[in-house]
Amino acid sequence: MKVLFNNGTAGECPVEEELHVIRHTAAHILAQAVKNLYPQAHFAYGPATENGFYYDVDLGDAKLADGDIAKIEAEMAKIVKANLPIKTYTLPREEAVKLMQERGEIYKVEHIGDLPEDAVISFYQQGDYIDMCVGPHLCYTKALKAFKLTQVSGAYWKNDRSNKMLTRINGTAFASKDELAAHMAALEEARKRDHNKIGRELEYFTTVDSIGQGLPILLPKGARVIQLLQRWVEDEEQKRGYLLTKTPLMAKRDLYRISGHWDHYRDGMFIMGDPDDEEKECFALRPMTCPFQYQVFLNRMRSYRDLPMRLGETSTLFRNEDSGEMHGLIRVRQFTISEGHLVLRPEQLEEEFAGCLSLAKYMLETVGLAEDVTYRFSQWDPANTAKYEGTPEQWNEAQELMAKILDKLEVPYSVGIDEAAFYGPKLDIQIKNVYGKEDTIITIQIDMLLAKKFGMEYVDTDGQKKNPYIIHRTSLGCYERTLALLLEKYAGALPTWMAPTQVKIMTITERGDEWAKEVERELFSRGIRVDLDLRNEKIGFKIRQAQAEKVPYMLVVGDKEAEAKAVAVRNRKEGDLGTMPLADLIAKLEEEIRTKAR
User: Fold this and answer.
1) Are residues 109 and 256 in the same domain?
2) Residues 429, 443: contact at Cβ < 8 Å?
3) 3-class DSSP state for residue 143?
4) From CA 278, how far away is CA 285, in angstroms rounded?
């Protein structure tokens, strides 16, 4: 594919970069279309992304509706059809600023101010539209063969909530119409599986404007699933030697100053009181549990015999995420996490890290997400040391040690520079939602710094006091995010062991009511979650409704079943299983639940 580079030359683009160039060009054509329709528009960032492109636009007081998106897309088609040549040139900094000022591009002027002094400032032009960009781009607008605008959302300028909220117009583009059609079909399937859609339709959660963005209400079904997961995690951790803790949801800023969160994470915290008034107490809701759990270790003097100390907690945390980042249950401002900290001697690090990874893998395999994850070794950025605690020597030591452990465990990881926690490197277990957006589901972190800051010491075998190492880890991560991913994975049809309702009993006539109630009582007494449908409705309607609710087992009770003290069983996946004695059904259910079958 022939493209135009910012040095003014045209040449072939590597195959692996073709989509990036196509989508980058589509972003410029989108911006030109917006400018044609909304002359008052000012443009911020407009990059190509993994799945498409977007442009953040300041439209003044204008708001975009669905019909407006269609108009913008039609205007883009006109620009493509006009086959405008795309030209490029560079300007000195002062001339670049003057050009953008003349065109009213206030965000571009600010962006130029953020660039290094020796930066090459290049521009691309098609028709009367000029955009500052590093390129490369297609040589003509008609070379854009297939594109589609997909969504409108909000985004703060520079992703900073103190700045103005801009309009983000999202789209995607491909080399051919067939590729675009295939992508749009996959996107439609993704929408069907989107937990935001399924979770609301099946009444797992809801959101309320008067409560706030990123603060979902878990309805009875969602609350039940998360309760089941929490109990399972806590029981499994207890088997593996974890001690359960329960710590406060808030603390004075003094605690966060010791840990470093006040310096490195303050913007992401919910603060109560004036953070700059040293004369008055100032509290903050906790964004993580580590400095609280350390107090358990610090409760008395510790010996090497106390280590490793494995502390686990079902922790509710609070993080002041940007509103543009909110997404259903996947990214929220209040959430619950299977958090834990292991305090240990240096020589115990490898074995305990392996134990944390083993637990994480067991959890993922059991819920059915193991095949969907990837592993990222998140490291610090030596060119951006202000973000991190510790010295380069300490970071090199921690990262070399972690690399040795990961290699020995044969973990197939990628490396993420500048993705570490501020106190140490970590293994992030990554997963994508139905739209391809990647998030962390589980993390295991090595910390060789904070124990000393908190004065955590133990008496070693030689009688000397030493600082322990710490592993920060989750076993199933954020429960809300996990629920969202499970709803998408199973399209709402959760495995029987975690389904909020495992069995629904339906009667054909009221003559079966008494036996149906007896079946309900027996199932309930065995710990099986059951609903009873005695409504005066046709049985076909009841079955269709139960299927729509994704109930794993449907039991039909008619005259024959009541007389035989049996039930007609219908399974969500296998269909009609015929009539069976109640005892046989219970044995089948209990085995499926015990083994956590999927």
Assistant:
1) no
2) yes
3) helix
4) 18
Residue 321: pLDDT above 90?
no
Q: What is the pLDDT of residues 530-583, one digit of tens each?
A: 999 999 999 999 999 999 999 999 999 999 999 999 999 999 999 999 999 999
**Domain's final residue, options 437, 463, 489:** 489
**Does residue 285 have a pLDDT over 90?**
yes
Residue 435: predicted pLDDT: 87
Q: What is the model's pLDDT at position 41?
A: 94
39 and 99 fall within a common domain = yes
Query: How do the residues of the chain divide into helix, strand and coil, expressed in percent and rounded to 5?
Result: 40, 30, 30
Alpha-carbon gap, residue 376 to 388, rounded angstroms = 19
370 located within any domain? yes
Q: Write the DSSP assignment of 274-291 as a string of letters.
A: -TT-TTS--EEE-S-SHH
Written as one string, the DSSP assignment of 448-489 is: SSHHHHTT--EE-TTS-EEPPEEEEEEEEEEHHHHHHHHHHH
450 plus 426 within the same structural domain: yes
* Continuous segment of H or E residues that includes residue 415: strand 413-417
Are residues 357 and 411 in contact, defined by beta-carbon separation less than 8 angstroms?
yes
Contact between 152 and 182 under an 8 Å Cβ cutoff? The reply is no
Q: Domain range for residue 543?
A: 496-594
Question: Do 298 and 390 fall within a single domain?
Answer: yes
Q: Domain check: are 305 and 437 in the same one?
A: yes
On whether residue 267 sits in a domain, the answer given is yes
Are 465 and 540 in a shared domain? no
Q: Mean pLDDT over residues 287-303, rounded?
A: 96
State whether 424 and 280 are in the same domain: yes
- At 316, is the secondary structure helix, strand, or coil? strand
Q: What angle do CA 294, 298, 299 make, to 5 degrees?
A: 120
- Quick one: how far is CA 511 from the chain centroid? 50
Q: How many Å apart are CA 243 and CA 241, to the nearest integer?
A: 7
Domain C-terminal end among 419, 454, 489: 489
Nearest Cα to Cα of residue 311 among 261, 375, 247: 247
CATH number, domain of 33, equals 3.30.980.10
Q: How large is the average pLDDT for residues 301-319?
A: 97
Number of domains in the chain: 3
Q: Which H, E and C letters describe 47-114, residue by residue? A: CECCCCEEEEEECCCCCCCHHHHHHHHHHHHHHHHHCCEEEEEEECHHHHHHHHHHCCCHHHHHHHHH
Percent residues over pLDDT 70 in the chain? 100
pLDDT for 177 equals: 95
In-domain check, residue 183 = no
Report the CATH number at residue 315: 3.30.930.10
Q: The whole model's pTM is what?
A: 0.84
CA distances from residue 435 to 146, 152, 488 in whole angstroms, order as listed: 19, 15, 10
Q: Are residues 264 and 405 in the same domain?
A: yes
123/102 Cα distance (integer angstroms)? 15
- pLDDT (0 to 100) of residue 322: 80
